[in-house]
Amino acid sequence: MEDANSNAGRIFLCMIGLMLMLAGGVFEWLMVRSYLHAKATRDWPQVEAVVLRSAIDERQIKGSPAEFRLNILYGYRFENEDLTSDRMSPRGAKWSRELSSVKDLAKEYPEGSYHTAWVNPDRSGVAILQHDSKAAGYTLWFPALIIVGGGGMIVGAWKKPKGGIRK
Fold it and tell me: Which region holds residue 92: left if phi is over 0, alpha if psi is between -120 and 50, else beta?
């Protein structure tokens, strides 16, 4: 009977270890994907872009505070084609509850101003004015730690005790 309880406990620990490894693996994959995408945009061709529209949008969802974002449109020329984009970054314009930060961004990108834009070489209609952060790449160790911890639980569950007697 003691062996059955011991094996049931080991299997339980293995299941917890596998779940930790799975969760850590998912987070690791998401962070690697985010880092690689942020890194890739830095290799996109650069062009000069002119801001055609720079306005502040406001929205308010029932009962919540108002949120704001910069509504921007800029034109650029890529491979002898005139194009426009409305993306600040690969993820688009972020909504913020801080009107002052959006106003500061609008001052940085007034209509008629010129800026560097990066154009997706595979989809020339997609351009950005700002890159995403590569911070995800610098924190890859954290989900890796969860994966190693889950593996350690599995190994520890089946490891024989040293010199001790199991009760």
Answer: left
30 lies in the same domain as 48: no
The DSSP symbol for 64 reads S
Three-state DSSP at 87 gives coil
Is residue 101 located within the same domain as residue 62? yes
Q: Which residue shows structure tokens 């593996």?
A: 151
- Total domains present in the chain: 2
Domain of 99 in residue numbering reads as 43-130
With tokens 């690689």, the residue in question is: 36
Mean pLDDT across the chain? 90
Q: Is 107 helix (H, G, I), strand (E, B) or coil?
A: helix
- Residue 152's Cβ-side half-sphere holds a number of Cα atoms within 13 Å equal to 6
pLDDT tens readout for residues 73-131: 999 999 999 999 999 998 878 899 999 999 999 999 999 999 999 999 999 889 999 99
From CA 136, how far away is CA 148, in angstroms rounded? 19
Distance CA 105, CA 87 (A): 13
Q: Which residues contact 79 (CB under 8 A, 6 or more apart)?
A: 124
DSSP strands (E only) in the chain: 46-59, 67-78, 81-85, 114-119, 127-128
> Within this chain, do residues 126 and 47 fall inside the same structural domain, yes or no?
yes
